[in-house]
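Tutorial sheet, problem 5. The two components below are modelled jointly, 648 residues in total.
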Amino acid sequence: MKAMIELKNVTKHYHEVKAVDQLNLKILKGEIFGLLGPNGAGKSTTIHMLLGLTEPTEGEVYVCGIHATTRPIEVKKRVGFLPDDVGFYEDMTGLENLVLTAKLNGVKEDMAKERALSLLKQVGLQDAAHKKTGQFSRGMRQRLGLADVLMKNPEVVILDEPTLGIDPKGIQEFLTMIRSLSKEQGLTVLLSSHQLHQVQQICDRVGIFVKGSLLAQGDMESLQQQLFDDDSVQYKVEVGSKDEHAIESLRNLPFVKKVGLQPDGKWLVQLKKGNQGELAKKIVEMNLDLISLEKISYGLDDIYQRYFQGGEALGSS
Amino acid sequence: MDLHKLEKGLENAIKSPIWTLVRKEMTDHIKSFRFNILMGIILLTCLGSLYTALSTIRDAASGIDDAEQWFLYLKMLTITDEKGTLYPFITFISFLGPLLGIGMGFDAINNERNKNTLIRLVSQPIPRDSIILAKFLAALSIISMFIFSLGLLVIGLGIIFMGIPPTFDEFLRIIFYLIMIIVYISFWLSLSILFSIRFNQAATSALAGMAMWLFFSIFYTIIVNLIVNASMPDQLFQTIESQQKNQELFTSFMRLSPNYLFSEITMVLLTPSFQPLGPISMEQVIGYVPTPLALSQSLTIIWPQVIGILAAGVVCFALAYLVFMRQEVRS
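Model answer (structure tokens):
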């Protein structure tokens, strides 16, 4: 597979602050890659470097095999970029805005119009095509932004915080749209976000980006393996009686690693791997009223929490 | 072979996406309230001053036989009635022209930045400098069209009121004057584009432009006078030479101001009988026969001034270019 986006040892300093530190990243054709990180992690800086808007202090950036720093115009011909708060010329209609973008990309007017109309339909804005964009809501602007990005028929689409400020239903629609577009047209998508659930939903691979460096990358499963390599399984247990002795005796079981009491009264039991059936049996044997037993698997939530906390700690130390 | 290259280059220039931007900007300007208000102000004041001039020129012209020697059309632009109810046309133009330039440029870049359209624009495959170039060209072409239609309107009104067609020389002089106005306004335009890049708030940038405008049209003369007077403490007993030196110092300081340069240009172009710029001595005046200058001679006299204004405009634009290319475009 061809790498559509490639960053090699990229570092970016802003005066004394290191915004991006020794970043290495490869994104393959047709992939949806999620760049996940808290605000100020350097996501936007990375994206700006991909577009050649900012020059890296060190390292090389290639997009579609083209050096982004020295030949930014060639890159911009192939890359569609949706900034986090996209703006349009407010006294022009949605259609006119799209046609302008197309013309800047060298598309002829009549073809541009045709393409703009079909894209507006695709993003569900066909009724608002002749409305001035000044009257558009945030969600509509974002969808128009997506159409705007697709006007140039890009090979790579970069979305910076695309779901910021849209309502939940709008987010769902928007994400589904991105996913289906990517799959239909074989687009490579790079998406930055600090909303992990969204990233989890549509991304093939995720990179966790904290304080300018990529802590981990891969699909969900390998991320979980990378991040939680300890060989344990967790269960959430709810029993009828709150007996301190019961906790003690659970703790003493050979296959139990750790028992913790959660604020809601449930117990969090960590087991060694391979002994998963035993827990329920033992609880029943101990004559406790077992109300619920739930296996906890790590979602991105935990990963996120853990790493962002880690990031904070790294930053403060 | 070279011709082929030229053709290719021309073709690229015509196809360049910059024209798309220029067209969009021009549409924006024409539709904007701002330009229409500015146009209205200038049109009204200029027509008002022309009316005053024309009502006076009838009396003045009645006693003349040879219209060619009198340059009626040029007079029309420079005179006013005896009571001085309104300033002449040229005063209005040199006063309001800069305002037009500032008004067209002060929010060129910062408006795009604040509305988040700049980041979208720079992520299109166009060189970044073509954005400011397009802004400049669009405003310049709108201004040129406006100034030329104003000028031709003036000539037309003159024909209707006076019934005498302008001589070719007068016509050419007026056309050159119009071109000079455009050069002068384009200096203010590029200055205000520079401010629009430097200042993020449109209001700040407008204010900065206005401050420069007020400074050069009002305060600069006062300051130069102060400096020149201070450098000459004993004013009562000056020799002729020191007086002349004084005057030269004054002129050379004043020539740092684009307003003064433009007033010199106006004077020479529209008053052909007016000759020297700056002080002359009695020896130079001896044997001098007052005849009006030919257009080519007038142009030769004002050439340094024209280049001065052009250079100031180019410097502003170059600075704007530098600042813009180095600026980070962040959303």
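Marking note: Chain B touches chain A at residues 15, 17, 20-21, 24, 28, 31, 115-117, 119-127, 328-331 (CB under 8 Å). Full credit if you identified this.
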